Amino acid sequence: MPWALVAIGAALLFVGYWGASDSTDPGRQLPYLASGTAPGLSLVLCGAALLIRTEHEKDRAEVRHLQARFDALLGWLESGPTAEPSGPPPSEVPLGKDLDAPAGSVGPR
After folding, report:
1. 8 A C-beta contact, residue 1 and residue 50
2. Secondary structure tally for the chain: helices H, strands E
C-alpha cells in the first residue's frame, strides 16, 4: 500500500510538471500545479511516512524477539552452572528469519 501511494504521487508530480512546462504563462501553469503537483507531493510524503512506520514496527518486533532471547539467556545464567535451566536453553530459543545461526552456537559453553 505505501509503495502504491508513492508511485501514484510520483506519477501525479510528473503529470503536473509536464503540463505546467508547456507554458510560460503562470495563469496556465497554476491549474497543473494545483491539480497534479500538490496532491502528488502529498501522496509521496504520506507513502514515505507509512513506509517508515512499517519499518519501525518490524524493528520493534525484532527488538522484542531479541529481548526474549536475552531474558532466556539471563535466566539460564542466573540459575547457576549446575542447576537445571527453567526454560529452554538460549540455543533452542527460535531465531528470527534474518538472524539464523547454527544450534548451539549461541550461549556459553
Report:
1. yes
2. 3, 0
Identify the weakest region by mean pLDDT among 20-29, 88-97, 100-109: 100-109
- Helix (H) or strand (E) holding 66, with range, is helix 38-78
Give dist(CA 26, CA 88) in Å, integer: 70
Could you give the CA distance from residue 41 to residue 14 in angstroms, rounded to a whole number? 10
Q: Which three cell numbers stand for residue 15?
A: 503529470
Type of residue found at 20: A
The overall pTM is greater than 0.70? no
For residues 23 and 28, what is the distance between their CA atoms, to the nearest angstrom? 7
**pLDDT tens track for 15-66:** 888 888 888 888 888 888 888 888 899 999 999 999 999 999 999 999 999 9
As a whole number of angstroms, the distance between CA 26 and CA 16 comes to 13
Could you tell me the residue ranges of all domains in the chain?
2-92
How does the average pLDDT of the chain come out, rounded? Answer: 80
